[in-house]
Amino acid sequence: MIRTNQQIVPHLWYDKEAKEAAEFYASVFPDSRITNMLTLHDTPSGDADLVSFELLGQKFMAISAGPFFKFNPSISFFVNFDPEQEKDASEKMNEVWLKLSEGGMVLMPLDKYSFSEKYGWVQDKFGLSWQLNLTNPEGEKRPSIVPSLLFVGDKCGKAEEAINYYLSVFKNSKQGQIVRYPQNMEPNREGTIMFSDFMLENQWFAAMDSAEEHKFNFNEAISFMVYCDTQEEIDYYWEKLSSVPEAEQCGWLKDMNGLSWQIVPREMDKMMSSGRPEQIARVNMAILKMKKLDLEEIQKVYKD
Q: What mean pLDDT value characterizes the chain?
């Protein structure tokens, strides 16, 4: 397993099931655990459960904050099973597939494909999408879980432009592999991205275009939290990524592709995990009034 010192954390929005979902995922994947739970009171959604957890070394955060956004396959999570690291990788993959598909929906059956000896795409009972893949031992090593972006509809054909932009914004970044659609794969246009992966802040992501008819696109159900050490960093990412002024709220923004990000001070994690209830409440109330987060103001209300 490749572990990363993670600066970008996927954030999952549930109606009421964040705790239940985190416990389920921690039971499905080995080397997984819940790291923190707390309830935020008096949010616009009422009381909201906030859950931090790790799956196969990848950090996640989940919130129960009302029925406003639903997961869809525009963002999914690649799960790589490496036969070189685990001799029973294929059997473990079968076990995870069975658990994730129970009560869910199979999008691509677990089978052999031209691009993989064994692969399947499934939407679990909570609506979250997973792509399970038995890796080629001769290929480049990747982490066990990799977030994947699917560019569809009016965004189809823009995956490469988006990747190049993200590579220019984030430090410690590099392009990985690129596989383009060949001729005669209509409706997909020749030369657009069939599959690509790339690293941002030492963390791998994947992206692809699809011109098939899909009735979904990026939304706030899955966002990416970018942890910042200073106000300068917060200002930098906010300026570079925010493209939809009306989406700016509580540290949230939308970029030019409609992808949601949260630009947050790293200190907030410590505040939320070790602060007294009244400190957490003050921080939460302060954040609700902000668009871009003000680190100095957050520190001030925490200490008051």
A: 93
